[in-house]
Every structure is written in C-alpha cells, then in structure tokens.
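Field reference: "sequence" (input) and "structure" (output). Example, 4Fe-4S dicluster domain-containing protein:
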Amino acid sequence: MKTLMVVDPRMCTECKDCITACRDEHGVSRAKKTSTVPIFCMQCHPDKAPCARICPTNAIREEDGTLFVDQEACILCRLCMIACPVGMIVIDAEKKSTQKCTLCMETDRIIPACVEACKDNVLKIFSIEDLEDLKNDTTFADVLEQAMKAYQDKI
C-alpha cells in the first residue's frame, strides 16, 4: 500500500521535534528543516523516483511500495542526492551509505517517529486509497484539487 506524508505548514511552530525524533530513530535525520517548515521525502512512485532511476548500483530498491537504500550496495556516489527533487537523500557517515525517508517502514513502528513526535499535529499519513476517498468527497474535492494542482506545478 503506497503511503504519503502530508505537512500542514500553517500549523507548524518550528519546534524541530520531528527532526529530532527522526535522528533518534535512525541515527541521522532523514528530514530537513527549512526556515519555516520541515521537508520530507516526497515518496515518489518507485518506477519514477529520480533517486532510484539514477543509482548506478540499483541501491535504491522498492519493497511494498516504499523505496529503501540498500546500504551494502550504496557506493556513496551521491548521484541520488543530486537527482532528488527536494534534496532529501542524506548521508549516514557511520553506515557509509545514503539514507532516505521510508516513513519508518523498516522499524517496528506503526506510526513514523516524526509523526508521533509532532505535538502540533502538523504531520499526517495517508494511503493513496485514503486520498482517493477524500477526493471523491465533495466537501474536500476543491481543497484536494488545488493541492494536487500545486503539487503538479512543482514536479
């Protein structure tokens, strides 16, 4: 099941709890803080993800709809970092590999560490199916249409 994270920038108080929780969970933060809101991996479609497509060793692989970095296959060429449209591939110097957000899928967590840590309820997790259901709900249709239009303009 394909899962996405949605950030409500109007609610963010810039506390950095999500960044800290990610670093605590993975050893390195897989999210970055801009001047106003945190930025996360866009969870691109596995067949279209620029980071996976450019990797010369195929170290970025899909499992259950989520892209993971195979630390053994990563040669730290950094091409994935250049290709990522939001710059969300990070280097884990200790593991000598790149890392990317997986929404904590490789952990025992049910909810990603960043979402759980967000006291302002800024971060939300949705499946593609959830978003389709919301899209068909006329009360949310206009809001989602505008959000999708803004997203499409940035791709």
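Residues 3-127 form a domain with the Alpha-Beta Plaits fold (CATH 3.30.70.20).
The helical segments are 17-26, 50-54, 79-83, 113-117, 128-136, 138-154.
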